[in-house]
Amino acid sequence: MQQRKSKKILIYFFLLLVVGSINNINFNGLKFQNINNINITGLDIKNKLILFKEIENFNLNNIFLINKLDLKHEIESNTLVENFSIFKRYPSSLDINIEKTKFLAKINKNGRIFYVGSNGKFIKNNTSNNELPFIFGNPEVFEFFKIKEIIDKSKISFTEIKNLYFFPSKRWDLELIDNTIIKLPNDNINLALNLAIEFLNDHKFIDARIKNQIILND
Questions:
Q1: Domain match, 44 and 22 both
Q2: How many domains does the chain have?
Q3: Is residue 51 domain-shared with residue 82, that is, in the same domain?
Q4: I need a surface site. Which of 85, 106, 127, 208 has the fewest CB within 10 A?
Q5: Quick one: 121 and 202 in the same domain?
Q6: What is the reported pTM?
Q7: Is 90 exceeded by the pLDDT of residue 62?
Q8: What is the dihedral of CA 77, 79, 80, 82, to 10 degrees?
């Protein structure tokens, strides 16, 4: 009885060695195809090439060995990117779909003109867009988004804004495209703005800095 068990154990062990050897041979002989196609959508040709150069330093020799987290970090560092998705198309292609950020305003930083993107980033760009409002002063990006949200919820459109003036006291002035100036307070900005809007048709200077008061000057 003991001999039969020993023989069975030997047979199982032998079969295990054979199967393991076959699998090892197949695995060692298996060659993964290199990535030969990267498709980037959502950007113009120039910025596609820039993004491609930014990601080409990664290990793109094998679609199974790509460090997806590092690749995501590299794409996110591109200031034009709002959102994105990465799809692996086996065996040898990558699809990177980009949602480009929207340009909201312009600002001068250290002598250079930047766009403020809806992704919260300052974007270098050589193109000119005179339809965007210009930000004077040096606000943090969150301060710009705060005043923009207030404007968007008010009775005027952000497209009616020509310039935004930010002061060290954290206060804003707005200049509309018809050259009307609205001076806003530090607090209760939304209430002050909506009150000031009531006088837009008749006055070009509206001072709403004092609570519950409007000072007008033609």
A1: no
A2: 3
A3: yes
A4: 127
A5: yes
A6: 0.76
A7: no
A8: 70
| Dihedral angle over CA of 60, 64, 67, 68, nearest 10 | 100
Q: Residue 70: which H helix or E strand, with range?
A: helix 68-76
Both 183 and 199 in one domain: the answer is: yes
Q: How far is CA 75 from CA 86, 97, 116, 170, 194, in A?
A: 10, 11, 18, 33, 40
Do the beta carbons of residue 124 and residue 152 sit within 8 Å? no
**Are 127 and 155 contained in the same domain?**
yes
Nearest to 38 by CA among 73, 4, 81, 71: 71
Last residue of a domain, one of 54, 76, 100: 100
* DSSP secondary structure code for residue 7 in this structure: H
Comparing 30-44, 45-59, 130-144, 187-201, the range with the smallest average pLDDT is 30-44
The string of pLDDT tens digits covering residues 150-162 is 999 999 999 999 9
Q: What is the pLDDT of residue 4?
A: 54
* Domain stop point among 84, 100, 116: 100
pLDDT of residue 35: 67
Non-local (6+) Cβ contacts of 199 within 8 A are: 206, 214, 216
DSSP bridge pairs for 85:
97
Q: Do 128 and 210 have their domain in common?
A: yes
Rounded CA separation 129/23 (Å): 62
Nearest one of 118, 106, 103, 98 to 44, comparing CA atoms: 98
25 and 79 part of one domain: no
- Residue 70: give the domain boundaries: 37-100
